[in-house]
Design goal:
CATH topology of the largest domain: Aminopeptidase
CATH class of the largest domain: Alpha Beta
Number of domains: 2
Number of helices: 6
Radius of gyration: 21 Å
Structural class: alpha+beta
Length: 298
């Protein structure tokens, strides 16, 4: 039997040590310092009062981070990372952490629990399925650090009535074309408020598509990187490819060689995925998006 303690009852040093120990031998390097851990908790809306550490006696043996947010009329939780230290793997620690997290979500009146997992991490995916999560989509982290040939983003249909406007990230939720489906947590607008932006594609002044993104600038104001989080076109639009290419051309220009990344793009965004691949983006990481509907505690 493991004891579960919340992060806000522990020291940062032991929390970060447990995190780093738990992710030893993981698929990617998740090592963090105290400062980077705190920064991630703040940026991704993870809450110490909802996050937990499993103990075997006095020894911390696993950790699970969580956030909860009201999203489009539903209360949504996110598992922001589950890790078990090497000596305690396959000993029920992960199960105990997930069970405890679901109890917390129910107490927080969460409607839908969400998480992402590496597609190759079958053990973790099977554990989450055992606890009632279901895979609802696959996700692709994509990257292109090379220059992009301008002709690859030429429109197949001439559009003289398209225009673009940049707005604040928060304004996306008031758009009539806003996609209210469950999305990967790190791509949601409320996690991008500090440095994210919204690019609207307008047709005759009416929103027909939008892109959520972030530019990274150097000290001289020169763009050194672009990160794309969402790409949406109004449902039923006949010229979907044109709108996507127009938005990407506006967003990615200048097309010189800089770092460009797309975060957790759902595979069901087939047209966006295809066009990104055509202009040189490749899949760097594959994940799955999993959800579990919850019953509220009265």
């Amino acid at each position: 039997m493991y004891t579960i303690k919340k992060l806000d009852t522990l020291t940062l040093a032991e929390v970060v040590e447990t995190w780093n120990e738990g992710f030893k031998g993981y698929y990617s390097d998740a090592t963090m310092t105290v400062d980077s851990f705190v920064a991630r908790m703040v940026k991704e809306n993870l809450k110490p009062s909802l996050s937990i550490v499993a103990f075997d006696g006095e020894k911390p043996v696993g950790i699970l981070l969580s956030g909860v947010q009201d999203v489009n009329g539903s209360r949504v939780s996110w598992n922001g990372g589950t890790a078990v230290i090497p000596d305690y793997r396959k000993k029920g620690v992960g199960l105990a952490l997930v069970e405890a997290s679901l109890k917390i979500y129910e107490e927080e009146k969460v409607d839908v629990a969400t998480l992402e997992a590496f597609s190759i991490n079958e053990k973790a995916i099977n554990l989450y399925k055992k606890m009632g999560y279901e895979v609802i989509d696959s996700l692709n982290w994509m990257q292109n650090d090379n220059s992009i040939a301008p002709e690859l983003l030429d429109f197949s249909i001439e559009k003289t009535d398209l225009s673009f406007v940049t707005k604040t990230m928060q304004e996306v939720q008031s758009l009539p074309i806003y996609n209210k489906e469950i999305k990967p947590w790190q791509t949601e607008w409320f996690n991008l408020r500090q440095d994210g932006e919204l690019l609207l594609v307008l047709e005759s002044g009416t929103p027909i598509g939008y892109f959520l993104y972030r530019h990274v600038l150097d000290q001289e104001g020169k763009k050194t990187a672009t990160v794309l989080y969402q790409a949406e076109v109004k449902s039923g639009t006949s010229d979907e490819e044109t709108i996507i290419k127009a938005g990407l051309k506006e967003l990615l220009t200048p097309l010189d060689a800089i770092k460009r990344m797309v975060v957790n793009l759902p595979s069901k965004k087939e047209s966006v995925t295809r066009i990104l691949k055509e202009i040189g983006f490749t899949v760097a990481v594959e994940q799955v998006l999993m959800t579990k509907p919850l019953k509220k505690v009265n």
